[in-house]
Amino acid sequence: MLPNRQGKFGPFGGRFVPETLMPALSELEEAYRRFKRDPGFRRELSWYLREYAGRPTPLYPARRLSQALGGHLRLYLKREDLLHTGAHKINNTLGQVLLARRMGKRRVIAETGAGQHGVATATAAALLGLECVVYMGAKDTVRQAMNVFRMELLGARVVPVHAGTQTLKDAINEAIRDWVTHVEDTFYVIGSVVGPHPYPMMVRDFQSVIGREARRQILRLEGRLPDLVIACVGGGSNAMGIFHPFVKDQVVKLIGVEAAGEGLDSDKHSATLTAGEPGVLHGMMTYLLQDRVGQIKGAHSIAPGLDYPGVGPEHAFLKECGRAEYVAVDDEEALAAFRLLSETEGIIPALESAHAVAYLVKIADRLPRDTIVIINLSGRGDKDVAAVKEYLGK
Amino acid sequence: MTGAERVREAIEEVNRAGRAALIPYFCAWDPDLETTRALLWAAAEAGASVVELGFPFSDPLADGPTIQAATQRALRHRPTLEALLEFVAGLYNEGYPLPVVIMGYYNPFFRFGLARFAREARRAGLCGAIIPDLPLEEARPWLREARKQGLSAVMLAAPTTPPQRLERIARVSTGFLYYVSVTGITGARERLPEDLALRLDLAREVSPVPVAVGFGISKPEQVRLLAPHAHALVVGSALVRIIGKEGPRAPARVRKALSELVSAAKR
Which residues have C-beta within 8 Å of that of residue B109, sequence separation ≥ 6? Predict the structure, then answer.
């Protein structure tokens, strides 16, 4: 079972952090491995997931969307958009903040790009009574002012980060700096399957509830495994969450959809696995958007949750060993899918999740009759309607 | 002498004279390479023993605001490791007297290729490297290449490092061991932890190489207090702040500030 003891998925992953954090990462890994097996912790987490977050989520047969794509597919949406706070992020933050409390930490910190993970962390911290500080790129605090207010309503303190590109990657840098400084009493809640070991493994495990449910549900509904599982990939937590329980099922094709932004040749995209190269950032060896000399480049996507110049190391591994395929769709294609799903199913998806839908739209014609497809609908689109309105110039 | 031996000898030489060695940090290209050259010469004139030369990286996650700002100023010049090595080679052609080690985050070295970097670094006369995001568990490939070329691979230990781990780190570190004074990021501090002297004494006891202390040291009083407990002291943000304020006029001011610190380093 990956990762190995050094936190490596093949050559990817690991722990590339300042020495100050190494003992804290060992402590975290040990605590996580202990609580993962502890029936009390598992009961507590599944209670909150069920009674508070709204699990299990439906596996919904999207008949009208399927019809619009030619009527030959058996298409299902895993409805993570129906969870409390509107996305899959809460699966992970409930897990990590419960762990923080069990470890006796009094303070949690988090980074956030668009604000979804920040809101989910602030929510869990409010619920469990811990102090919460969220780092957010200064540019993002302007673009996502409502989410800043939301976090503040939840009792969190939001700190704008003015360094570097003033976006998600700089917010992560600043969160790591905070953690290095307050490592004794602070738990860093990372929002995706990224960062130093054990985070990619731990976040994957917390998100795997998506895939475990989906696998059980599809077997009940169809009596067999799906042919395709499609999910969008920024850092890659919703994708890892739905992929993981299917990885051993070789018949299931796994497809991760990255953001091609304004086009892969435009330099304004977030397609790390499709167009990046291996390197080290934020404590992990993985694919990165970087220049010739190894400086990290800015990322772009119309979906704020996808614009990260790195990606989870396990995705890098699944790409290298060929178990999953990674593709990219651009802003326009994602927007078209955003509208299509809204009009055919009455579901306004997050722009991130719209990327997964958009890829199915692209390949639907080539798929044989009765192909079973599961799309992970990782979040709802309420947060995006203002941006989409502006983009469409209405 | 190998690069690692030069670094170690430079520190031990001043230790024998009854002083702790001073290691200033400058960020290369801040605000431009000509100023960096002048700063390095100023450091030699002020009596520094080794120079730590920063290679700017887009995501300096172990650095506080002062060095982050220097990094931003430097990145405008689109620095490359090729250009840095060329700069160092040029410096030694001019007869620069001090050993220089580069301080940089791992990704640019990884991209460049560790074997190639070590080879070309030795050819340029560079004495070693400090890579703050490359802890013991990930350092093996770099340690191997550095050893092949006789470069100093400076490893870091921190206040959170347990004693046994500290010993393991010290055993593989070459040139010197970098002891991080505080749980935190780089930057001048008013006060250093009270048990720092004690921790340094323990580190020196187990370390086969000289122990340098860094992070937060900015004032002569701090240097006076720590000099008996460390073989060397690293001063970064305090000097970088002067450069940020004075720009190309900084070298004279840096020389003066550094001279004061050097004379405070008597044991």
Answer: A294, B81, B117, B129, B131, B142
CA A160 to chain centre: 22
Q: Residue A181: list chain B partners with CB under 8 A.
A: 183-185
* CA-based nearest residue to B79, from B105, B45, B99: B105
Closest among B81, B75, B155, B172 to B121, alpha carbons compared: B81
Strand-pair category, A324-330 with A253-261: parallel
Q: Which one-letter DSSP state was computed for residue A84?
A: G
| Alpha-carbon gap, residue A88 to A27, rounded angstroms | 26
Per-residue model confidence (pLDDT) at position A143: 82
Mean pLDDT over B81-107 rounds to: 98
Contact check, Cβ <8 Å, B107/A292: no
Rounded to 5°, the CA angle A121-A123-A127 comes to: 115
Tens of pLDDT, residue by residue over A208-253, are: 999 999 999 999 999 999 999 999 999 999 999 999 999 999 999 9
Question: What pLDDT does A276 receive?
Answer: 97
Q: Check residue A392 and give its pLDDT.
A: 86
Question: Which chain B positions have a beta carbon within 8 Å of A16's beta carbon?
Answer: 106, 133-135, 138
What H or E segment, with its residue span, contains residue A217?
Answer: helix A209-222
- Using an 8 Å CB-CB cutoff, list chain B residues near A296: 58-59, 107
**Contact partners, residue B142, CB within 8 Å, separation at least 6:** B109, B114, B129, B131, B134, B153
Residue B63 annotated to the active site:
yes
Among residues B5, B9, B52, B86, the one annotated as catalytic is B52
**Are A19 and B161 a contacting pair at CB < 8 A?**
yes
CA dist., res. B177 & res. A24, Å (int): 21
- High-pLDDT (> 70) share of chain A, %: 99
Across the A:B interface, residue pairs with CB atoms under 8 Å apart total: 114
What's the pLDDT tens digit per position in A268-324? Answer: 999 999 999 999 999 999 999 999 999 999 999 999 999 999 999 999 999 999 999
Check if the beta carbon of residue A76 is closer than 8 Å to that of residue A60: yes
Residues of A contacting chain B (CB within 8 angstroms): 6, 14-24, 163-164, 169-170, 172-173, 176-177, 180-181, 183-184, 279-283, 288, 290, 292-296
Indicate if the pLDDT at residue A394 is higher than 70.
no
CB contact under 8 A, B137 and A22: yes
Helices A89-102 and A39-47 meet at what angle, rounded to 10? 140
Closest-CA distance, A28 to chain B, in angstroms, reads 14
Q: Which residue of B has its CA nearest to A162?
A: B65
Query: Which residues of chain B have a CB within 8 Å of the CB of A24?
Result: 160
Q: Residue B188: pLDDT above 90?
A: no
Delineate the domains of chain B, giving CATH numbers in brackets: 3-260 (3.20.20.70)
